[in-house]
Amino acid sequence: MLLSPTGRRILRDRPRLTSTTLDIPRLRSLPSNTLGYAYAEWLDREGVSPDTRAQVRYIDDEECAYVMQRYRECHDFYHALVGLPVFREGEVALKAFEYANTGLPMTGLAVFSALTLKKKEWERFWQIYGPWAVRNGLQAKDVINVYWEEELEKDIDELRTRLGIEKPPDLRAIRQMEREARKRAKEAEERAKGTAV
User: Which tens digits make up the pLDDT trace of 130-178?
Assistant: First the structure.
């Protein structure tokens, strides 16, 4: 952060990302193509709040503690920016992106939770979301240096382009299509059993 003019400003200003500082009702009223609207919509869809991030403890250095707090509070902006949901599969993909982008060891350790994914989730991670995370994390500008509060009214697609981030395939849509395909297959199997009797 010290190498970036914006990162240095964030360190100097020490803004916080909370429901009070962000005015979520106002964000909901922004145009649908803005980062602020996408963020508020993502919070609503996922049923989370910016206030759910735990306070950093066990870090004595005040500046380092702030950086870790800022990282925690920015995490949901990363989710909203790329559209990944909060369930485990989306979290693992986002942690892989964060590790490739920030190099924070704890994000790298979180990627090991991919070992607990179900078979289909594991396959999707290695075929789609893992490669996306590594490619985008390495090519993107440092997301910890984004002054999110100043980007809320900006076009989210333009912001992705400026940061060098491509949106991954919609994980919720993929899972929904797979559920529907399984349901149709089961119904067809039951119909076939019914006609065989």
Answer: 999 999 999 999 999 999 999 999 999 999 999 999 999 999 899 899 8
* pLDDT for the residue 196: 65
Residue 191, in any domain of the structure: no
In this prediction, residue 197 carries a pLDDT of 58
The answer to whether residue 180 is domain-embedded is no
Domain, as residue range, for 148: 5-168
The answer to whether 86 and 156 are in contact (CB under 8 A) is no
Residue 160 lies in a domain: yes
pLDDT-derived band at 8, boundaries 50, 70, 90 = very high
Nearest to 10 by CA among 71, 55, 56: 71
Q: How many domains does the chain have?
A: 1
Q: Which residues contact 7 (CB under 8 A, 6 or more apart)?
A: 1, 142, 144, 145
pLDDT over 80 at 12, yes or no: yes
Within-domain flag for 45: yes
